[in-house]
Amino acid sequence: MQISEKIDGNTARLSLEGRFDFHSHRDFRASYDALLGRADIRDILIDFARVDYLDSSALGMLLLLREKAEAGGKKVRLTKLTGSVKQVLEIANFGKLFAIE
Amino acid sequence: MSANAQAKPIKILVVDDTVTNIKQLEAVARKLGHEVVTAMDGVEAIEKYQAEAPELIIMDIMMPRMDGIEAARRIRELPCDRWVPIIFYSALDSLSDILRGFEIGGDDYMVKPANLQVIRAKINGYARALGMQEQSLHYARELAAWRDEAEEQNKLGQYIIGRLLDSKGLRDPMIQWRNTPAQSFSGDLVCAARGPGEVLYVMLADAAGHGLSAALTALPLTQVFHGMVFKGFPIHTIAEELNSKLKAFLPIDRFVAASLAAIDTRNQTIEIWNGGNPEVLFVDDDGQVTMRWPSRHPPLGILPPELFSGATEVVNYARPGELVMVSDGIIEAESPDGQRLNQAGLDALLGQAPTGLRLAAIEDGVKRQLAGRLEHDDLSVLVVRVPIERRRTLRAQPAAATAHSLSEWRMELRWGADELRGIDVVPAMLGFIGQIKPLQPHQGSCS
């Protein structure tokens, strides 16, 4: 999975690309670790536009990010969900856990 | 180990029929810190090779009894688990001699007399290579030991988990099920048990991830499920308890998708809680999916108890059919060109098969979809036959309680509105009644 970061004011956008699964653990963690330490970042926006696969380990990674972000007073939002990615998140009712745009 | 590292001392077999040659090589090798054993001809070389297990051989060719070429050929035929380089060191200097040395399995060839510096460099070069070989053999042995240990633990794990997951509820005539792991352990879990009043409770759970870690994640569910079903707790309370247990046991990124159902054939009701699993389906005897229960909740083990909802959906059914639960591995089964089975594909499979053969139809359909690919997710299916019963039947007729000395007992319990709001009536009542010994064999048989 490729991850690119764009910071705009208080919002950091992490755009994911490819398969988001148990192999992505290290990369995903590395992509947000630095953001969590920055006081100026209030919102972390995860952009799924170019993700074509999502498994249950990926859901676990999102939960972990959410936990850490909330501990630091930050919000995690999910955006641009389509196709099977949207379906997986809907079945897991992640709309009850994350702000989804 | 880098190529520049100091070579470790090795044991060198020097074979030559001329004592002065042996002395010279021995002096060079010993000065470099290596150990030396010697032989004066091919026959002795083989004997010393077997007795001393040298790591490097420097071999003359022209010798009495057996020449160096023949000795090297025979040494190469002996069983051996490592590379023992052979350097020919001979006055024979024609190209054909040199090539013959390599052909029978020699690794190097020096023409006598060789420069001492070159001999030193060669010996040290081989000692370094042998050191690297030693290191990788060590890693390989370590790896093999790890693998053996992991296999041993796997076997034990499979045995224990198999025992923990087995229950007589899974042999209930109303259900058919299959749980196929992607690895040696399944992170999917299928449970079934009868509660008081013959109500059949079933659960299909799918822990995040796969393999042993997923199997361990789902394990706490079975004991809670069976204990609470036996005591007659309703589904919403069971779901709440399962969630609290997992929330307490699991790390943040682990959770378990689950669907729970209670099928009450006497009152013709089905009650469902679905958190994170694909739709639970009711298929009538014509193969039509007439009811669907999509996931309404996040999976178990994510929400803290105060935010968790055990809200269920209850329906009355008027026609017989089958209740079908699957894990997401089924609908996500992917063909080699990336096409998934999907919900529509599953519906179609169910429509094509008659009642009683739908489990097999789903299995065949998934197999066709995968077309020989290895499934990377655990696959599980649970099919419950939901009949319309003409009359009440008991599975087993317990012995009559009237023959006992306590048979004349009478008991009355009263609860007011306040209590009724706060308790689960059936387990509370059974809690009292269960104290009466002659009634204990009847628990779970009849309300």
TrEMBL record, chain A:
Pfam families: STAS_2. One of its GO terms (molecular function) is anti-sigma factor antagonist activity. Residues 1-101 form the STAS domain. Belongs to the anti-sigma-factor antagonist family. Signal peptide: none annotated. Transmembrane segments: none annotated. This is Anti-sigma factor antagonist. InterPro entries: Anti-sigma_ant (IPR003658), MlaB-like_STAS (IPR058548), STAS_dom (IPR002645), STAS_dom_sf (IPR036513).
From TrEMBL, chain B:
Keywords: Hydrolase, Phosphoprotein. One of its GO terms (molecular function) is phosphatase activity. GO terms for biological process: phosphorelay signal transduction system. CDD domains: REC_OmpR (cd17574). Residues 11-127 form the Response regulatory domain. The modification 4-aspartylphosphate is found at D60. It comes from the Bacteria. This is Fused response regulator/phosphatase.
